[in-house]
């Protein structure tokens, strides 16, 4: 999952650093991601993982690191697969 | 002290007093800048999904009424900056607020104001700043907005959307 997240960040995150060398808990905003770019990242994640971020998850913290994004995706995909 | 100097001093005192009255009501300020080319890229990549997740139908209708794509992107960029500046002014960037609950509304005279709904409306009141003042601009590839959150003043109310 983290590799897919990194690819999306590479394509849409507008990062000023190489995302492949960024730690999972590295701050994406400090790495150059703008709030506008985070919207693109969100839309790309939704398309790739076939999920939708609810309004309550439209928080800066949800998109601040690879690890934070992975946690959010785990929560959303778990709900999607629940009976 | 000559009359000119006296008047200058009186004017300065009046200005300081007016600023003091104004600033007492100011709770916080938010500023945001958007590269309009990023908006163009988002529209190209995500199209309607991007528009409908970020902007309200009224904002989209106004932006898409532009005669060319560049103007449309500038209008959207300025509105995105206004939404972000509002979140910053309210210290609400981590509150789970949809950008669609912060709407830039054009008055008949062409000026703009903010209308908040749902969680954004609640955040403004929780911040002790039920009134917001907005200014937006764009120049070249940049669009920017400043939002001042303050205690109630005339002509800068915010309304709850019904």
Textual characterization of the structure:
The complex is a heterodimer of chains A (83) and B (162). With 83 residues, chain A is mainly alpha-helical. Helices cover 51% and strands 0% of the residues of chain A. The model of chain A has no long low-confidence stretch (mean pLDDT 92). The longest helix of chain A is centred in the C-terminal third of the chain and has 16 residues, at 66-81. Chain B has five helices and five strands, in the order H-E-H-H-H-E-E-H-E-E. Chain B starts with a helix and ends in a 12-residue tail after the last strand. The chains are: A mainly alpha (83), B alpha+beta (162). Chains A and B meet through helix 2 of A and strand 1 and helix 2 of B.
Topology:
The complex is a heterodimer of chains A (83) and B (162).
Chain A: H1 2-12, H2 35-49, H3 66-81
Chain B: H1 3-25, E1 26-35, H2 36-54, H3 57-64, H4 69-89, E2 102-106, E3 112-116, H5 118-126, E4 131-139, E5 142-150
Antiparallel strand pairs in B: 1-5, 2-3, 4-5
The CATH class designation of chain B is Alpha Beta
Could you describe the largest sheet of chain A, including whether it forms a barrel?
none
The gyration radius over C-alpha positions of chain A equals 12 Å
Q: Which segments of chain B are poorly predicted (pLDDT under 50) over 5 or more consecutive residues?
A: none
Radius of gyration of chain B: 18 Å
The number of distinct β-strands of chain B equals: 5
State the secondary-structure class of chain A.
mainly alpha
Number of helices of chain B: 5
Query: How much of the residues of chain B is beta strand, in percent?
Result: 15-25%
Quick summary of this structure?
Chain A has helices at residues 2-12, 35-49, 66-81. With 83 residues, chain A is mainly α. Chain B has a single domain, classed as 4'-phosphopantetheinyl transferase domain (Ribosomal Protein L22, Chain A, Alpha-Beta Complex).
């Amino acid at each position: 999952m983290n590799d897919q997240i990194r690819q999306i960040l590479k394509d849409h995150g507008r990062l000023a650093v190489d995302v492949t060398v960024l730690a999972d808990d590295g701050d994406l905003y400090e790495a150059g991601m703008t709030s506008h770019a985070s919207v693109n990242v969100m839309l790309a994640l939704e398309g790739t993982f076939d999920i939708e971020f609810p309004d309550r998850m439209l928080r800066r913290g949800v998109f601040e690191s690879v690890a934070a994004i992975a946690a959010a995706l785990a929560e959303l995909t778990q709900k999607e697969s629940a009976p | 002290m000559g009359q000119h100097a006296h008047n200058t001093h009186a004017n300065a005192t009046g200005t300081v007093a007016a600023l003091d009255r104004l600033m007492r009501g100011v709770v916080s300020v938010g500023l945001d800048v958007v590269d309009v080319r990023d908006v163009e890229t988002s529209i190209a990549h995500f199209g309607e999904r991007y528009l409908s997740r970020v902007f309200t139908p009224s904002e989209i209708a106004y932006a898409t009424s532009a005669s060319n794509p560049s103007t449309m992107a500038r209008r959207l960029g300025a509105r995105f900056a206004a939404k972000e500046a509002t979140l910053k002014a309210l210290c609400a960037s981590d509150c789970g607020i949809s950008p669609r609950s912060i709407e830039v509304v054009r008055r008949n005279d062409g000026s703009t104001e903010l209308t908040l709904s749902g969680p954004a409306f609640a955040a403004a009141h929780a911040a002790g700043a039920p009134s917001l003042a907005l200014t937006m601009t764009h120049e070249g590839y940049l669009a920017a907005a400043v939002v001042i959150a303050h205690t109630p003043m005339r002509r800068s109310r915010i309304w709850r959307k019904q």
